[in-house]
Automatic annotation (TrEMBL):
It comes from Arthrobacter zhangbolii. This is DUF421 domain-containing protein. Pfam families: DUF421 (PF04239). Keywords: Cell membrane, Membrane, Transmembrane, Transmembrane helix. Its main location: membrane. The keyword Methyltransferase does not apply.
Length: 180
C-alpha cells in the first residue's frame, strides 16, 4: 500500500518533522525581526517570499516530493496554524504578540518605535496614509499584532475596551479616553 502512495511511513514522519521544524524556524525569525517584516512588502520583498516558498517547500517535502508528501506537509502546516490559533484563544503568550503603542496623543514614543523596529519615517508614512496632516490630530498610533499600524484620530474619545491589551495605554492622554 505504501508503495502506491509514493511515500513510506518513515518518509511521512520526516515530512511532518520538516514541516514542524520549518514552521518553528519561520516563527522564531519573524519574532526576531519583528512583525513589520511581514506588514508592508515592496516588489523585492514579494520576490523573496516567492523564493522562500520554493525553498520551504523543498525542505518540507524532501528531495523527492510526491503528492502524498505534499498533502502530509500541507496538513501539518495547517495543524500548526490551528495550534497557534488555539494558543492565542487560551491566551498563551509565548506564541501571541502584543500591540505596541507608537504614539500617545501627539507624542511619538521612542521606546515603542524601538521595540516595534519602526523608524520615524515609516510612522510618518502610516500617518499620511491615515489622512493625518498634523501630529495634533493623533489620539494614538498602535502597531497591531498583524504588523499593521492603526491610527486613532482625535475627535471622539477612545473606548478603553479598544486598547485594553495595549501595553502603556495609560500614556494616552486621559482627555482622549472615555472614563472606565
Amino acid at each position: 500500500m505504501w508503495h502506491n502512495l509514493g511515500i513510506t511511513p518513515l518518509e511521512a514522519l520526516w515530512v511532518v518533522l520538516g514541516a514542524v521544524g520549518i514552521y518553528a524556524a519561520f516563527y522564531l525569525l519573524v519574532r526576531a525581526f519583528g512583525l513589520r517584516a511581514l506588514a508592508t512588502w515592496s516588489t523585492l520583498d514579494k520576490a523573496v517570499v516567492i523564493a522562500l516558498g520554493s525553498l520551504l517547500g523543498r525542505v518540507v517535502l524532501g528531495y523527492t516530493p510526491t503528492l502524498s508528501a505534499g498533502i502530509i506537509g500541507l496538513a501539518t502546516l495547517f495543524a500548526m496554524l490551528r495550534l497557534e490559533r488555539w494558543c492565542r484563544a487560551k491566551d498563551i503568550r509565548f506564541l501571541s504578540s502584543r500591540p505596541i503603542l507608537l504614539m500617545a496623543g501627539s507624542e511619538i514614543l521612542p521606546e515603542g518605535l524601538r521595540r516595534a523596529r519602526v523608524v520615524e519615517d515609516e510612522l510618518y508614512f502610516k500617518l499620511r496614509q491615515a489622512g493625518i496632516c498634523n501630529l495634533s490630530e493623533v489620539a494614538a498610533a498602535v502597531l497591531e499584532t498583524t504588523g499593521d499600524v492603526t491610527v486613532l484620530r482625535r475627535g471622539q474619545r477612545i473606548d478603553p475596551l479598544l486598547v485594553r491589551r495595549v501595553p502603556n495605554r495609560e500614556r494616552i492622554p486621559a482627555d482622549l479616553m472615555l472614563p472606565d
